[in-house]
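fyi for ur records
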Amino acid sequence: MQAVQAEQAAVDAAERAERQARATLDAYDQEAAAREAEAKELAEGAARYRQYLADKAAFHRLRSMPTHMQGLYRGAVDAAAELGEDAPAFPAWVDELCKDA
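which gave:
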């Protein structure tokens, strides 16, 4: 009697393991498709974030451009004076392109 019960328990355990394996395998395709959709959404968000960071860096670089150009201009004016030449004109694009920064 115990041998029959032990045999039945082994059969039940094997059937449970098979059902669990089948459920895991059957769920895989659906789960993989769901993760693919999530990954696409995350990739789009990551691309938007990288663009935001690039835009932010461009904003700060543009914002610092007038100060940089003023330093270059002062150096050019000093060099022109030292050489006895006319000073160059300050570039009009600095005020035009940097006004909104």
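DSSP finds two helices and no strands in the chain. thats all i got for now
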